[in-house]
Amino acid sequence: MFELSLSFIERGIVAAMIVGVIAPLVGAMLFVRRSSVVSESLSHVTLTGVSAGVLLAQVMETIPMNPLYIGFGFALVGSLLIEKLRQTFHHFQDLAAPMILSAGIGLSAVLMSISTAGYNEWYDYLFGSIISVSPSDLRFIMITAFIVLLIFYFFQKELIIVSFDEEFAKVSGVSTKGMNFLFSILVALVISMSMKVVGILLVGALISLPVAASLKVARSFRQLLVWSVILGEVAVMSGVYFSYHYSIAPGGMIVVMSVLLLLLFLLLPSLMHRKQEGSS
Amino acid sequence: MKENDCIDEVVRVKDVFFQYHGQPVLENIAFVIKKGSFTGLVGPNGSGKSTLIKLILGLLNRRERGEIYLFGTPLEKFKQWSKIGYVSQKANSFNSGFPATVFEVVAMGLYGKMGLFRFLRKGEKEKIDEALNTVGMLPFKKRPIGELSGGQQQRVFIARALVSEPEFLILDEPTVGVDAASVKKFYQLLLKLNQEKNITLLLVTHDIGVMTRYVTDVLCLNKTLHFHGTAQDFETSDLSSVYKHDVQLVTHEHGGFHT
Ligand SMILES: Nc1ncnc2c1ncn2[C@@H]1O[C@H](COP(=O)(O)OP(=O)(O)OP(=O)(O)O)[C@@H](O)[C@H]1O
Ligand SMILES: [Mg+2]
Question: Which positions, given as ranges, span the membrane (chain A) (predicted)?
């Protein structure tokens, strides 16, 4: 297959490019839904899943299994759980995410200490390591990216309407339950696919920073999507470039680039001699 | 009841009771809205008007008792939501940081009608322009919704409800925050929709004086239904004067709240 013929550097770059498109795309939807914070806690649940996956792979050495799949499974369950809590305890919405977050990180700490995996392997999942993207990892990233794009293609309208005005969506006959479920899947997909590139601790940044910068310039939802993807891709590519030339951790460098982009866009209006008044 | 028996009925509400956390809000509500009518729903603050509308739209489903039919179909089985347009009272409680343009917001009114795959086609874009033109917001088409005034946003939400060409339009205090001159135009627009396009209208409002000049029927609600009849009957009833007094105070407070 295609991913087998690539060198490890090329694999890393392809993985980073894919994540650079998908993470900001889903991030834009999450922002509109005012649930960016959910992705933060979910990433920790995904870590639990990966920890469990690594442990499982050690116990059952005969079955080759990528821990990312188990990470995705955990992320999905966590995502659905948050959604359920969000609906059940309507007034405690803000509580649901931190609850899951603490439970997730606690459990993965426990699993980590049981497992005999080396520090480096954990480090890869925490902060990302594009040079360790295996052919199987790249396959996982490509499959999940494809699913995200499919969901977007078919349900973009419904996802937007539910995010913008849930009541109106219901009256339009859009299944809000179904769309909330799709949201959960999207978040779980994007987090588990970003893990090898930016790592669990930094995925939240890649989901939210390009979108935050784009908000400064986008004048429509369509523009928000386009800008988010462009800025996400710029951050990922420049991050990879600098990390390669100065041997810096790529996950960290990608996030630093996103922060710089955000700062640039925040300062942009005042740099442009206040041409457009009132669009601060 | 068979579906065909009541083809000219848009809404039938039968013995409906509703409570929020043990607090009764609606008691023994029963009425019918006929196709082609223009009904004004009035009552003081907290009388249950919005609650009743949300029940009719299936947005609240913990109904204690009673039955609701839409176009002759029990609410639970009703599927033809594109026949119904809705402008909620808190239309501007949306995410104002959302960088959607006026055009994109109105386009959402068509989403329920469009199936999978489909993106906006030319005919649909024209419909959006037409709806925006109807409410006088066409020049603002490309502006982000968050940068409009409250009254302008309200008009955009009315356009969103109109764009799917509903047969039944429910408006919950759509003119709050809209200036007096526009309110008059707005009523004339509703009248036009009602008479020329034969759209059945249900309008919640506090400006009774203006409303009674346009509507055909009046529903007067305060936990129970105090009046249901024609606009003329309402004008001559003593309820009218009582409510007028009550309600003008209320409208005043509303105005103060929004400035
Ligand atoms: N979500 C809710 N939870 C609990 N009680 C509610 C809720 N919404 C409304 N109520 C109560 O139900 C009653 C009816 O409210 P409703 O919003 O239907 O009144 P309304 O007639 O629309 O008033 P207004 O003219 O101010 O819009 C009020 O006493 C209100 O306090
Ligand atoms: Mg109300």
Answer: 12-32, 66-83, 95-118, 138-156, 168-191, 197-217, 224-242, 248-268
